């Protein structure tokens, strides 16, 4: 039954063009994760990838509210950082980064597709209530350990790893397989939160 207990599943968070150089919401050095992610992917028996996938006029876009990107506002479910329009469904910016080899990915999980709710985490949307279904999927397949990499370290990777722990999975984050947005020290804060939650911070190496 629990065939995968010894085999961690690699979850690659949002490795998309809009988060890379020249994209709508570039994460500094975002493109640089591609070689590390390809190596990680080749060395894992099971690979899942998430894809940020927003409707036009999404609630997380500053333009939707007539505000400036990176301001924080209160939405019905709580505070939300406002972002430039990014990863709009079906656009080139929502596609996966050039050079990424995802041929062995077993699942592409799209998130953030509800117009009124953002979803940093691969497990629960930003209202912290609406499940994406990933937890049930992983449990049904017998996975107990998750290794995370992707974009961005201090937002979607952080929230996904914290939720993985909350759902009872062992979790590790490969730091050199991630890059951070680092708004007001958020990268260091993310490292502290991960450590406090029992998330292992590891490096893939060159
Ligand atoms: Zn997004």
Q: Which short descriptors sum up this protein?
A:
206 residues; alpha/beta; Rossmann fold; six-stranded parallel beta sheet; two-stranded antiparallel ribbon; 4 helices; 8 strands; globular; binds zinc ion
Count the domains.
Answer: 1
Structural class of the secondary elements?
alpha/beta
Count every beta strand, where a strand is a DSSP E run of 2 or more residues.
8
Give the radius of gyration.
16 Å
CATH-level-2 architecture: 3-Layer(aba) Sandwich
Content of β-strand: 15-25%
Q: Name the helix and strand elements from N-terminus to C-terminus, one letter apiece.
A: EHEEEEHEHEHE
N- and C-termini, Cα separation: 36 Å
Uncertain regions: pLDDT < 50 for 5+ in a row?
Answer: none
The small-molecule ligands in this entry are: zinc ion
Strand order of the largest sheet: 5-2-1-6-7-8
Mean pLDDT: 95
Quote the CATH topology.
Rossmann fold
What share of the residues lie within helices?
A: 10-25%
Write down the CATH class: Alpha Beta
Could you give the topology of this structure?
Layout: E1 9-13, H1 33-42, E2 46-52, E3 72-75, E4 78-81, E5 105-111, H2 134-140, E6 145-151, H3 153-166, E7 170-179, H4 186-196, E8 200-202
Parallel strand pairs: 1-2, 1-6, 2-5, 6-7, 7-8
Antiparallel strand pairs: 3-4
Helix pairs in contact: 3-4
Zinc ion (ZN) is lined by residues 52, 54, 60, 86-87, 112.
């Amino acid at each position: 039954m629990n065939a995968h207990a010894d085999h961690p599943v690699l979850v690659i968070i949002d490795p998309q063009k809009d988060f890379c150089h020249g994209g709508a919401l570039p994460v500094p050095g975002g493109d640089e994760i591609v070689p590390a992610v390809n190596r990680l992917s080749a060395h894992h028996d099971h690979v899942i990838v998430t894809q940020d996938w927003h409707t036009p006029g999404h609630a997380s876009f500053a333009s939707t509210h007539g505000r400036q990107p990176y301001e924080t506002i209160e939405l019905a479910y709580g505070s939300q950082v406002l972002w430039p329009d990014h990863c709009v469904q079906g656009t080139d910016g929502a596609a996966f980064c050039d050079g990424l080899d995802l041929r062995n990915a077993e699942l592409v999980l799209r998130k953030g597709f509800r117009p009124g709710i953002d979803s940093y985490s691969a497990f629960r949307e930003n209202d912290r209530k609406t499940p994406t279904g990933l937890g049930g999927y992983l449990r049904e397949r017998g996975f107990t350990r998750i290794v995370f990499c992707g974009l961005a370290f201090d937002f979607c990777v952080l929230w996904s790893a914290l939720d993985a722990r909350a759902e009872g999975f062992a979790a590790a984050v490969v730091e050199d397989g991630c890059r951070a947005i680092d708004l007001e020290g958020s990268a260091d804060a993310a490292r502290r939160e991960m450590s406090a939650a029992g998330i292992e911070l590891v490096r893939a190496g060159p």
